[in-house]
Amino acid sequence: MVFSADNHITLAEDIFYQRFPDKLKEDAPRIWYDDGAYHIGVKGQSFLWDTFSAVVMQYDDLPGAASTNIEARIEELRADGVDKELAFPNAILALFGYPDKEIRELAFRVYNEYVAELQERSGGHFYGVGLINWWDPQGARRTLAELKSLGLKTFLLPLNPGKDDDGNPIDYASTAMTAVFEEIEAAGLPLTHHIGETPPKIPSEFNPIVVSMMTNIDGFREVFSKYIFGGILDRHPGLQIGWFEGGIAWVPWALQDAEHLVASYRHMLNRPLEHDVRYYWDNHMSASFMLDPVGLQLIERIGVNKVFWSSDYPHNESTYG
């Protein structure tokens, strides 16, 4: 049995408008196609930058890529040798920054319900990645409980958690977020981080798609550092974290740098680490790869039991086909 730990599914149905209560339909995110381009947005304003929309449309000719044909998806993957999959959302990541947090949470709950229905219909072949409220503890508890009741096995946390109600950037490692991570830890579900949330910092005149793809992994190291140096894993030792679609070659590089920085700046730390850097990776983290010969050469440093293979179906850079 071959399991792909990181595939993707494009939400092709207008589920938020369809499933929101009547009084909120006007504010619901919409799904639509315009001149062959995929969009998600509100009141005709797309949340997607042009290159993102263009990438999504690259696999439009695969019937199973969209959420409307789970049966075709299962057959396409079976023909490629994959029996089971963990499926992350595609453009839904654009909702991470939705300004109305009540609408944002409702959209996440609707998506979880929808993807759980696909999971049920798949007969054990498709497992969807859910979304939760990460900005307040009560919302985290509420969405985690509902997600678990739907049968979803994991959820996606953004690399960029956005701003709090006062307009200040949310710091995952801050004491203000302790209660949220207590809820995550108590839920007992592994959490995931995934590349692809934000566009490059500087626009590109030429080949913007591949420039964007080259910078996709940038957010991993910052959040990785928060878990270790920010004390998240010391305060919440029950957490399990997966890093997806960034390959595995970055792991020994990050561990090497983290160990060197501890040795160099230990006297300046305002919060000492309770364990060696390596402990946090070995006991709390794992990562996925598709095609990573450099990472596989370093597998003894990474840990053979700390990696997942993935197809990344149906993306251009996937192993599919």
TrEMBL record:
Keyword Hydrolase attributed: yes
One GO term of the biological process aspect: secondary metabolic process
UniProt superkingdom: Bacteria
Stored InterPro entries: ACMSD (IPR032465), Amidohydro-rel (IPR006680), Metal_Hydrolase (IPR032466)
Occurrences of domain Amidohydrolase-related (ranges): 73-319
Pfam families referenced in this protein's UniProt entry, alphabetically: Amidohydro_2
Keyword field: Hydrolase, Lyase
Entry annotated with the keyword Glycosyltransferase: no
GO MF entry, a single one: hydrolase activity
GO cellular component: cytoplasm
Protein name: Amidohydrolase
